């Protein structure tokens, strides 16, 4: 589809029931899975170390899963993973996560808080220039941060206003390279938000102040500069020769001269293009592709790395404000009727990792077992009966999903499974993502296939679930389920306010368990991401971060393009 | 010059073999005109196409056709192609359909000149001009650049004659050349053909369903019925002593000039026989007012009778005592004799 | 070189025998086509009575995705364990219904308007044919796309029923076919309206409507039929195309297009699931085209009328 | 001159009616376009966007605004979000239309190149093995769904044999070799069915032409078969083909969506599809107008060609 109008937070793909750690343990030997060693993964696998020295120069074509409509004016842009990957070429963020799940300074030299985490001082690196030659200084960073908070006149951010607006009291410069952010409340995880899944890039002045063409006139400090963007066709970026980072040997980064990003929505076709060397690198989260890639990378035809670390979770997003899902019995019935293992075998070639909660491996709060209901048809049936006794109605709901083949299969599978438990599902396919998202925003749905919550710090999910209203339906526009759960609200607030990592871990584990009890969302699986490439391409995860730590090996928010190089 | 002996032409169709021409023989000398007469479907047009070698692929032909002593119409189309236009050519029935509607008439004349005689464009144009004026077309220069649809019917037929004459053929087939024309111009065209034939000393076969057309113009007339020649005689003889009942019927039914073309000959009851399974005996017998039992059993041979050059195939010829007797007998009891098919 | 009619002379009318002969000789291919389409219509009509597996709710617990000629699944089953045969048979009824409805609709409207435009002629005729031209200038894809979206909007709680959705798709596609059918009918009606027998009927004072229906229409029918057959063929293909964009009938109901579309993301995964309906599409389209051709040949329909 | 004026008037009328129809149709599209454009906008933002897009006005005045801009040469921009300027519509058309037209041109040109001799020869040898085989093949090819063919080509020629790139379009200016390689598979996919249709159309018209007396007449003049076929028979037989080819251009330009999508080509069909999905009203109008203009112009050219091919039409 050419009209994927993606929002930045979710690819609303309905990979809801596709999952299964246990499935693979039971051995999946269905046709199409040639190799029974293709087990589901947890964490990151497949990066092959190379002893070759990086060769600067050359260009590659990078296959993306979607086009980004609306361009790259980051405060307002609607970026999914494909857009984020491009944004990471053009912009740098102030902070960046490392492989240990810590947030480290990037454009910032350091970021420090006062004792109660309400004042943050950001010290910037010296000598960094934007693509247009202007300097990165405290003033432009201040204006960027104000813009993201919705406090800068030239920009009108939409979603980020929810994230920052309420907390940001003021941003001021305290030196040529020093910015001080004052918050209304304590916010220990604030540095994570200055990474924002790679979306909080720092824009140059000319772009930031440009009211009309901010989306086209991309100016960042990133390793590549935007040369050309043709909707649905390609985004071409070229090496920023005066980039501020060098590798360990003192060679100027990035290595590549040019990257052409090519959106190819059809998963199988993207892999075909890679095999034909029409692309040299691509990302994918399709189980079929990943399964094929495991085989292909084993025999050396292609290289691939794969990860669900810090990943997103796919789930069934229920509307908790209206029947049947305002009743916990209905939510439980559906949860128990979901044979997730079977779904994994049938729809994901048995390679997906079943989710227990919203937090993917690597994220604090992640639990191997959060108490999420296991498949139990008898229990599901009795819950259906209880619901009927209580309300006089059978459980019936409409499931809305995007009408791509994968979405359709998942929906049909859900329908069949629910029928076994006596639950009626009406299928409502929608042609494009925007309709899906609009439904969710208006809370018009009963159930939607959804994918969200890429990891890093668990506090980043506050915006999706927290309600300010003490009772009644949630007043938070982007809590699409509309539920207002005091326990969850309280845990979110505690988690945000706490600076003690051990304490936070406990809080978020509790939150995880709370979700498994309340079943506001019915978790499916952690999203596997794979970066597949020609064997000639190396350096996918990138060089060490500026502070010397290893770069993050999560792929859900893209990867660094700094270290990418191709044998010539 | 043209010697046709026992020519048979048949077409393979879904229904079986259609014997369109079934054993026709005649000779024709240079400067002579042979009129071939018969009603629609009798095989007269096929005969001329057979001689020309213009049969479709589902047709087969036997017998001998000699042109200037040489056997023609062999298997090679290339061989015939050299004959067409230069040795023999044809004037078709309907000048509207036989002229290419999207090609200028000049081009249609010069094309065969250039192909056969390998002359220069200028010379071909010059010749075309002369041809057009010789067939009586005024303002030939303007006409050369016109299309067929821009001309009147008579004019078109003149153009076609010019095309046929372009390469100086020794023999001309005129296949119902006036049927599609207004009555007023029919005579003009026939006169033109006659004049050209005389001037160029060509042999001409004039095919028509109208005995009146050939009356004053042909040297000999051949009457065809159901693929066979049933009576042939010098024109004068035929009109004065016709012997075949069919010829008689034809003459009686000469279309009045105000009749539309292709009107069935009302005077002859019934339909022409099916050429896939022609009746045994005389083919005209089922429609013949003279027919007797013998006619339905035994086919009369085509033989010279009475005067030299007059041959006909009939057991009870018109104008003979046998004929008169047979007719009288039939008029008494029509039903019994007409048993056929 | 050119084939001349079997009769030797340019006889003014074919004899009765000849006409019968022309009608008789359909040829093996045409009979095969009629046979295939007959089977399809039979399947479509009797889909709900045939002893087939459940086409919607498969046996997800049994081995899914098995290939052809497996016990109990002659055409295999899909990833959800649904029997391909059952789905393709029910899909036949859906796809053929959509095709028949849309072309029926197109023929009815296009045929009527074309007939009027061709028979009445004059200003009305010109105005009407200008209208077809304008409709033809409208991108058909956009028309179908928008119509399906407009007539079958996404509502949260009440997805359209199978029948409604089928009607919507048929209407959208049918609308696209109107100008084409109208043009052909008009051109044929125009030429028949100038024949002697119509003039004769006119001169005898018959009412225009009556002449149109009794004199002109019967002669235009072969042309319409021929085009309608070709139209059916193209609707079957168009339905497949719409399905690729999620615009055919809603899942889980099968149609040929839906079945193909369901595997289009990975053709190698369970190839029988898309190959079987593709073969059905292929053979049906071929048969319809062939018959359309036969009708055209038999009735000597003027193709230049398009 | 009046004739030309009439043509231009006709063009204007067709474009106006078609785009007005498009305006009404798109205004019926369900869903709030503002929500589609800016899902998280506040009510004030919404009101502003609505005003900028003219959504607060009725269809007619919105249409009048658009038409005024369009006919003064301003196609406007797509809508990118709150206050942001989207892509220039005319730039998108400039990018996509030549691509579509180039491909359609190749398809039509090559199709005719193959279909003409095929049609002529199978009519000439009507009933022969060649004719019957070709006819059967034609039926098979027409019935082959595009996506199946595209997928097969992509797999064999793109991946296995690696002759052509599996996706993307290279402009002719960016390397002729790469250009032809990039269009090879899309063009082949679109051609296959067309060849069958065209050659069969030509064949049947040619067969009836070959039964004409003037063909026999040309033969009787001793003109060689080849010349008869190409010079005498082809021209009067090609009118139907021409009509269909003309109509087809319009359909191909906007309708090659599946092929565009599979081979990742930025054509006008994809533009329209995207614009409908994103509720880009102004863009839809302009694209429809462009296609309508194209359609009218092509049909005008076809009419001109008619009179070149058939002198009888010239005088009517």
Whole-number tally of structural domains of chain A: 2
The rounded Rg of chain A comes to: 23 Å
Strand order of the largest sheet of chain A: 1-13-20-12-2-11-10-9
Number of strands of chain B: 12
* N-to-C SSE string of chain B, H for helix and E for strand: EEEHEEHEHHHHHEHEHEEHHHEEHH
Assigned CATH superfamily of the largest domain in chain A: Periplasmic binding protein-like II
Q: What summary fits the major beta sheet of chain A?
A: 8 strands, mixed
Largest sheet of chain B: 8 strands, mixed
Low-confidence stretches of chain B: 334-341
Shape of chain B: elongated
**CA-atom Rg of chain B in angstroms:** 21 Å
What is the beta-strand fraction of chain B? 15-25%
Which CATH architecture of the largest domain in chain A is right?
A: 3-Layer(aba) Sandwich
* Average pLDDT level of chain B: 82
Query: How would you classify the helix and strand content of chain B by structural class?
Result: alpha/beta
Helix content of chain A: 25-40%
The CATH C-level name of the largest domain in chain A is: Alpha Beta
Tell me the structural class of chain A. Answer: alpha+beta
The name CATH uses for the topology of the largest domain in chain A is D-Maltodextrin-Binding Protein, domain 2
Structure, explained:
The complex is a heterotetramer of chains A (568), B (341), C (306) and D (316). Chain A has 568 residues and is an alpha+beta fold. Helix content of chain A is 27%, strand content 20%. Chain A has 16 helices and 22 strands. Chain A has an 8-stranded mixed β-sheet with strand order 1-13-20-12-2-11-10-9, with helices on both faces. A 6-stranded mixed β-sheet of chain A has the order 15-19-14-18-16-17. Chain A has a 4-stranded antiparallel β-sheet with strand order 5-6-8-7, with helices on one face. In chain B, helix 4 (105-117) crosses helix 5 (121-134), helix 5 packs across helix 7 (153-165) and helix 7 packs parallel to helix 8 (183-200). Chain B has 341 residues and is an alpha/beta fold. Chain B has helices at residues 44-52, 77-83, 95-98, 105-117, 121-134, 140-144, 153-165, 183-200, 211-215, 235-240, 245-252, 293-297, 321-332, 334-337, and strands spanning 2-13, 16-28, 33-37, 59-67, 70-71, 88-91, 171-175, 203-208, 220-225, 228-234, 303-304, 311-312. Chain B has a domain at 95-168. The model of chain B is unreliable at 334-341 (pLDDT under 50). Chain D has 2 domains: 1-86 and 279-316, no CATH class; 91-278, MetI-like fold, CATH 1.10.3720.10. Chain D is 77% helix and 3% strand. Chain D has a two-stranded antiparallel sheet with strand order 1-2. In chain D, helix 1 (2-27) packs antiparallel against helix 14 (281-309). The two termini of chain D are 17 Å apart. Chains in contact: A-C, A-D, B-C, B-D, C-D. Chain A binds chain C through residues 1, 30-32, 266-268, 286, 288, 342, 346-347, 398, 400, 403-406, 408-409, 411-413, 415-417, 419, 426-431, 435, 439, 444-446, and chain C through 56-58, 60-61, 63-67, 79-81, 149, 154-159, 245-247, 250-252, 261-270.
